Amino acid sequence: MRHVISLLVDNEAGVLSRVAGLFSGRGYNIESLSVAPTLDPTRSKMVITTSGDDQVLEQIKKQLNKLINVIKVVDYTGKEFVEREMLLIKVKAEDKSRAEVLRIADIFRAKVVDVSHSSYTLELTGNKEKLQGFIDILNPIGIVDFIRTGVIVMDREMQRRRPLR
Amino acid sequence: MNRMKGASALIEALRCEGVKHVFGYPGGAVLDIFDVIMDVKDIQFILVRHEQGAVHAADGYARASGRVGVCLVTSGPGATNTVTGIATAYMDSIPIVVFTGQVPTNLIGNDAFQEADIVGITRPCTKHNYLVKDVADLAKIIKEAFYIASTGRPGPVLIDLPKDVMNATLNFKYPDKVAVHGYSPTYKGHTGQIKRIAGLVLKSKRPVIYGGGGIIHSNASRELVSLARLTNIPVTNTLMGLGVFPSDDNLSLGMLGMHGTYAANMAVTHTDCLIAIGSRFDDRVTGKTDEFAPKAKIIHIDIDPTSISKNIKVDLPVVGDCKTVLKSLINMLKPKKEELSALRQRLASWHEVIKEWRQAYPLEYTQGKSIKPQYVVTMVDKLTPDDTIIATEVGQNQMWAAQYYKFKMPKIFLTSGGLGTMGYGFPAAIGAQVAFPSRTVVDIAGDGSIQMNIQELATAVQYNLPVKVIILNNGYLGMVRQWQGLFYKKRYSHTSLAVSPDFVKLAESYGASGIKVEEPSDVEGAVRWALNTNGPVLVDFRIEPEEDVYPMVPAGAPINNMLLI
């Protein structure tokens, strides 16, 4: 099962290596990873997607918590959260397919960020499924290159319901 | 404000931490520190002969004294030589702080002479490590390192010191307080959980306490004994936990696991309530995990949350310091007088069953024409005082020591349990002797293991550390040979040590004393001679070459499935 974990860590050299080393050393898998400093420049936030059963996930969380440079571990399993990834994709765009690519981009609300005589580079954000759907649709036209960021997440605030009058 | 160089600040910081001994080896990158050390009188520096020996000595010092062990080595090869020692301390949760020299900061990453990325190399085998880039951070980092090494689940911490940082000046002020955001060990157990443990224990019919090295780290031996006495529950110990419960006590089942006693393994297999305290369900203890304590509700008290339900699913976990948790558990149990006496009565039949197991297969060996290793260990046990510190190497010597030496108090058994490091025992014994110059310190060794750090004889002689080395010499890498004999059709591939030194002459060449013993009738006299001879001593006992360690559970088998002879 896929899990999303976010970590608040010290923003210093070697921390990423400690986290990555923990995963590889204990045989856990990192599917995606993204890191950036927080508003407090001495801290960074990492979002890791990983897989494993409940017992493995429990160990991963405990082991991460044990790292001195890890300040907080949040497991998003079973929580409400917004999840986004970003994709840059360079697609062949010649004669016939030029219009088709733009049409698909429009449907997915992707942005054109670079144009040449033979290709378009598109930018798309969304969850994993949306990005995968976009890639699958463009694949027959001809993908020259693509790159995805890791997943980033933000938990949703619970909506307070107004009492009924 | 005290203005000084980094190297002097390092020594000041060690003073502030109350450090009295540093084990180490000089080199280019730490010349500035050694220049300061030359005039230091209140901290004794012990020059080992190999950096691995320095770390094991600091480790043995820490295990025997409970204080943080400290070592100081140079960069590059000096630093990489410490890795085995650090990994050994990490696996057994031993508080040590290792200072390594490093090339100047402007050369880091340049493949400079004697440069190694020791922080990178030791990341997975330290509790934490640091590279000091700015001399202004030095005091804070040292303070944190000692704090992290010695609190929670203890462990090794490494501090890498670039040469220019040791030469830079700073205003030295040692911090009074330490605050590490990402680190706050839990000491007090959850009261509700401890209540549930009390309830489960009082209802149990065949309970067993399974105590490990965590009890030593938290100084909870007395509480463990009180709990066992109060409830009359039998106690088995792990290799790391030997000594926390007096092995001559009626409630002691001895060690459990691969080379544990029959009674201990059977008791664990049949228990309905296993109380694990400061132990981590290592594979050498559990054997086949699916069949470990199959009938039991498992209680686990441990300060490290990652130890809980890592190998074996636990029914009732408590994260906390063993001593603190045991104290509250005892306090909860004490007022329940009726339930306690009912428990004690109910356990009578359990003790009967255990007694039968004990009698069916006690630890035993048969005397023969040649010296039996078990007999040597028994003699050492008989002739040494109770507070004798016993170090071991790894392999058969270690298991015979664990089985046949009767440990009656904690912190006297120094052995590499987790990593299984051959060559650990002798330098560890040296470290322990430094901590306790007047106590008897014995290293029980094999002829293979002792040669892995034999160079430390020079250290022992130089500092007049009268460690007694008992070599159980069978001419083999005995434990590996035993496995080859049992599981590889007696194909003894490279386990015969065809050439070994004359250990007596070797000892003498270092300025130590030695004798060779070949007759069983000479064993007692030889042990007495070793104990009564001043200075370091090495006794070469030529033992029965094909003697094996029994009982034994084959790797991966359930622990009640024992090879008994």
What are the main properties of this structure?
heterodimer, A: 165 residues, alpha+beta, 4 helices, 41% strand, globular, B: alpha/beta, Rossmann fold, 3 domains, six-stranded parallel beta sheet
Can you describe this structure?
The complex is a heterodimer of chains A (165) and B (565). Chain A is an alpha+beta fold and 165 residues long. Chain A has helices at residues 15-25, 54-66, 95-108, 128-138, and strands at residues 2-10, 30-37, 43-51, 70-75, 81-92, 111-115, 119-126, 143-148, 152-155. In chain A, the strands form 2 sheets. In chain A, strands 5, 6, 7, 8 and 9 form a 5-stranded antiparallel β-sheet that branches. A 4-stranded antiparallel β-sheet of chain A has the order 2-3-1-4, with helices on one face. With 565 residues, chain B is an alpha/beta fold. Chain B is 37% helix and 17% strand. In chain B, the strands form 4 sheets. In chain B, strands 3-2-4-5-7-6 form a 6-stranded parallel β-sheet, with helices on both faces. Chain B has a 6-stranded parallel β-sheet with strand order 11-10-9-12-13-14, with helices on both faces. Chain B has a 6-stranded parallel β-sheet with strand order 16-15-17-18-20-19, sandwiched between helices. The N and C termini of chain B lie far apart (69 Å). The mean pLDDT of chain B is 97. The interface between A and B is medium-sized, with 21 and 19 residues.
